[in-house]
Write a structure and sequence with these properties.
The protein has 323 residues and is mainly β. The protein is built from three helices and 20 strands. Strands 1, 4, 5, 6, 7, 8, 9, 10 and 11 form a nine-stranded mixed beta sheet that branches. The protein has a nine-stranded antiparallel beta sheet with strand order 17-19-20-12-13-14-15-16-18, with no helix packed on it.
């Protein structure tokens, strides 16, 4: 009991000191902001470039890109705002896909927002909607949609100019401003993505081989299988099937990958082959497409007997129909 009575006052004192420390931190931040200016991110409507590939053509939604609401704050309640310059930079994150050889990878100027493009927000501070479309980004860095692939990025940097001649951007704003209390990073990374919702292309499917049979069906033709999402990759789908069921009855996993509108077959083994069966199935030159909004039926084409284990390689195509 004596120790409890002693600890309670100490804990209360520690709490008071903690509150004082927190108040001092916020006071310091506000004092610093009053001497400078911030460009706060109020909301983000979109910040990605989802792409889909159909018959070799890269399609990009019209609303893809960076779409945010920003709010300016300075010592005079926004009266010091003169303009905001917008810059864009491209980085190729998929060197083996797309053709970005002619891209401008250094930062380039895109446009300027003047003070008149801002209007008073709920707190009387200047706000505006900044919309940098994928088309604007591509044009700025001398690219076409066909050069893009998942993993590529665009960085949009903002440089705010004040009427007193000062300029603020990501290179001279402190960490407490860019990433902390005021959420004013002055730059945004927009990724090129190939989204595949986890609830699509999963469940029970009837699989049917629609190309000529070679020594009977390759997989469990005419049966219902269950597609499941990959454990560590949302673009992966797997199902269990026999390989050459006329000869073997062992169930083996078969893997599909849905990437930016195309269905590819990673190189994988067979449990029914003339020798080891290693690397037996693989990607075909002809790649089938999928519609992200309709997973009711789709085709899968793959190279059968890649290593000429039992005979020359042939392209095999299966139709998947959701049950």
């Amino acid at each position: 009991m004596k120790s409890t009575k002693l600890l309670l006052p100490l804990a209360f004192a520690a709490l008071l000191f903690s509150c004082d420390d927190a108040d001092n931190t916020i006071d310091n931040v506000l004092n610093n902001v009053e001497r400078g200016a911030v460009l706060r991110t109020v909301s983000t409507a979109s910040n990605s470039i989802p792409i889909a590939i159909e018959n070799g053509t890269v399609n990009i939604p019209d609303d893809a890109g960076l779409n945010i609401v920003i709010e300016q704050q300075d010592a005079d309640g926004g009266a010091l705002l003169e303009s905001v310059d917008v810059f864009v930079q491209f980085a190729d994150g998929s060197a083996d896909e797309g053709d970005s050889a002619g891209a401008t990878t250094t930062e380039v100027f895109l446009k300027t927002l003047s003070a008149s493009d801002f209007s008073p927000g709920p707190f009387g501070l200047p706000r505006t909607n900044l919309n940098v479309t994928a088309a604007e980004m591509l044009s700025a860095v001398n690219l076409t949609p066909s050069a893009l692939f998942g993993g590529d990025t665009f960085t949009t940097r903002l440089a705010m100019k004040l009427t007193d001649g000062r300029e603020f951007s990501s290179d001279n704003a402190g960490g407490i401003i860019t990433g902390g209390f005021f959420a004013s990073p002055f730059q945004y990374v927009t990724s090129v993505v190939c989204n595949l919702p986890t609830d699509t292309f999963v469940g029970d499917y009837l699989i049917e081989e629609i190309t000529p049979l070679v020594d009977g069906p390759t997989l469990a033709d005419g049966t219902v299988i269950t597609l499941e999402r990959g454990e560590s990759d949302d673009t992966i789908r797997t199902f269990g099937t026999t390989n050459y069921p006329a000869y073997c009855g062992t169930i083996n996993p078969f893997t599909l990958q849905f990437v930016c509108g195309e269905i590819t077959i990673p190189t994988q083994n067979s449990v029914c082959a003339c020798s080891s069966g290693a690397g037996f199935f693989g990607p075909a030159d002809v790649v089938e497409n999928y519609d992200i909004t309709d997973d009711s039926t789709f085709l899968v084409s793959f190279l059968n007997d890649v290593e000429t284990d039992c005979g020359p390689p042939v392209v095999t195509t299966y139709r998947f129909t959701k049950q």
